[in-house]
Amino acid sequence: MSVSVKICGITKPEHANLAAYYGARWLGFVFFDKSPRNLTLQDAAAMRRQLPSSTERVGLFVNASHDFIEDACDALDLDWVQLHGDEYPNEALILKNRLGVSIIKAIGVSTAEDIDQADMFAPHVDAILFDAKPPKGSDRPGGNAHSFPWNLLSGRDLPYPWLLAGGLTPENVRQAVQESGAHAVDVSSGVEDGPGRKSGDKIEAFLRAAKAVR
Ligand SMILES: O=C(O)c1ccccc1NCC(=O)[C@H](O)[C@H](O)COP(=O)(O)O
Questions:
Q1: How far, in Å, is the centroid of ligand 1 from the Cα of 142?
Q2: pTM of the complete model
Q3: Which of 85, 87, 136, 199 is most buried, taking the most CB atoms under 10 A from its CB?
Q4: Max intra-chain CA distance, the chain
Q5: Which residues contact 82 (CB under 8 A, 6 or more apart)?
Q6: Any idea what the CATH number is for the domain that residue 207 is in?
Q7: Model pLDDT for residues 127-165, shown as the tens digit of each residue
Q8: What is the span of the domain harbouring residue 21?
Q9: Which residue is catalytic, options 116, 119, 131, 201?
Q10: Interface confidence: ipTM more than 0.90
């Protein structure tokens, strides 16, 4: 079975369509105004009809109000909500029941103990995203091109769906998958020419590399 891929921080329909063509499962859209990939609700609504139908749409939020998350779900017809803030474990369930979406909870990792934090969220969500903790000075919890030691995840046999994120690139995704045992990966900076500037060539290279891992 090939690795599932989420391309995060999409701001242009052409990158969404390219990612779909090369086999991405998910496309991520960031709704966080400190991010160079931030989308407004107006941007999202304008893009909605130009997006591929073969991929699942994920909206990313950092401590946003439930009303705002609902508006974003409507604007972009989101299938998933990814929570990157200080949510309490069953907040995901409340959102899921209100919006009828699937939920990803992001967990920042730098030590093995951080991975255990997922245990209290896992019963309430559809997937966990293990991402690197932000480096000092960053004003956003994700999308920092920062990785954590992938072998923290190896041999864990975690009983819930999870994705690996943080500092992945077309060059390192093979090693990252092999060391961590991930079945799904997420990338943003590694397929960009600069913060918020996605590269079609890098999206293609990443998807080819991830899909080639056995
Ligand atoms: O991408 C952002 O700017 C962002 C801002 C705030 C919260 C989350 C954000 N991104 C989350 C993602 O899912 C990224 O793909 C993930 O953190 C990996 O990013 P990168 O290390 O840049 O590949």
A1: 4
A2: 0.96
A3: 87
A4: 44
A5: 28, 58, 59, 60, 61, 103, 104, 105, 106, 129
A6: 3.20.20.70
A7: 999 999 998 999 999 999 999 999 999 989 899 999 999
A8: 4-212
A9: 131
A10: yes
